[in-house]
Automatic annotation (TrEMBL):
<keyword id="KW-0411">Iron-sulfur</keyword>
<keyword id="KW-0408">Iron</keyword>
<feature type="domain" description="2Fe-2S ferredoxin-type">
    <location>
        <begin position="253"/>
        <end position="342"/>
    </location>
</feature>
<dbReference type="InterPro" id="IPR017938">
    <property type="entry name" value="Riboflavin_synthase-like_b-brl"/>
</dbReference>
<dbReference type="Pfam" id="PF00111">
    <property type="entry name" value="Fer2"/>
</dbReference>
<dbReference type="InterPro" id="IPR050415">
    <property type="entry name" value="MRET"/>
</dbReference>
<dbReference type="Pfam" id="PF00970">
    <property type="entry name" value="FAD_binding_6"/>
</dbReference>
<keyword id="KW-0274">FAD</keyword>
<dbReference type="Pfam" id="PF00175">
    <property type="entry name" value="NAD_binding_1"/>
</dbReference>
<dbReference type="InterPro" id="IPR039261">
    <property type="entry name" value="FNR_nucleotide-bd"/>
</dbReference>
<keyword id="KW-0479">Metal-binding</keyword>
<dbReference type="InterPro" id="IPR001041">
    <property type="entry name" value="2Fe-2S_ferredoxin-type"/>
</dbReference>
<keyword id="KW-0285">Flavoprotein</keyword>
<dbReference type="InterPro" id="IPR001709">
    <property type="entry name" value="Flavoprot_Pyr_Nucl_cyt_Rdtase"/>
</dbReference>
<dbReference type="InterPro" id="IPR001433">
    <property type="entry name" value="OxRdtase_FAD/NAD-bd"/>
</dbReference>
<keyword id="KW-0001">2Fe-2S</keyword>
<dbReference type="InterPro" id="IPR036010">
    <property type="entry name" value="2Fe-2S_ferredoxin-like_sf"/>
</dbReference>
Amino acid sequence: MSMGSYRLQVCAVIDETADARSLVFEVPEHLRARFHYKAGQFLGFRVPCAGKLLTRCYSMASSPLCDPRPKVTIKRVEGGRVSNWMNQQVQVGDWLEVLPPAGHFCLGDDSAWPLVLFGGGSGITPVMSILKSTLLGSERPIKLVYANRDEASVIFRDELRQLARDYPERLEIVHVLDSVQGFLGDAQVRQLVRGLEGGEYFICGPAPFMDTVERALLALGEAAERIHVERFVSPPDPDEVVEQVFEGEVACESLLVELDGQQHEITCQPGETLLQSCRSAGLDVPSSCEEGFCGACMCTVQEGETRLARNDVLSAAELAAGWTLACQSRPIGPRVRLRFPD
């Protein structure tokens, strides 16, 4: 087992469409707290492949409010070594190496705004988790826009129909099919959100789909802080990672860490990442892939300077706001102060 991972057994396999399936996991009693999750989060998997240990993250479609076990849904990808193996080989009873829940694509505490969800293809997975949790945990009105290639590729079709029947006054579902309406465009996004201005938006799907929706919402004047976008990339293979070496760095003498409302002052050894220093001090900071692509270890630099070696998840705006990735960032000054989100 690699650091931070656990073995979970597959207790159910559900064929959702011809090219997507869901895996349901049994979580033993002693790991229940470790695998408690928020709607919209994902699980990381470490899978051996041709002598390498590959890491991939898949969102949970289950809701912590109504589903007794976590469920991830995985769609086949052309050339996808892990996604295709998950679809073709994994069976009930198999044990997989799983990282604890992570991710920030989650609902906030404020439910004053209408909720508008955009899912494209398998991007429906975290959106489905958020949808079910919101229906059960609040009275917010919800509109789901779900884009797919054609009707046969609609994941969770029957479950969505049942939810629409169960919550006719609160839930509106709009299907956009490439085979019928063509690809979703800016004008269509503007039309779909008419009357829901000032809402909270969650977007997940193929990159062009997400870019279109986000661009259209921003052009309408919607607040960027209420537009949430979930982007996943596959990391390079372990033997393809090139360790960056920076010269002229000043040793960090004091690393201050705010975690769960408490302040900690710890030491930082030369060459250590922020995550490594926190772990050496016994701090249980959030983390998952440790490869710079999942965002689980996001934290803000509130004082001092750090240098980020690899970043596949933080946007330019987030970097400008002081966010960094603890697994890929090193302190480069004598004093650095971090804050991990609550």
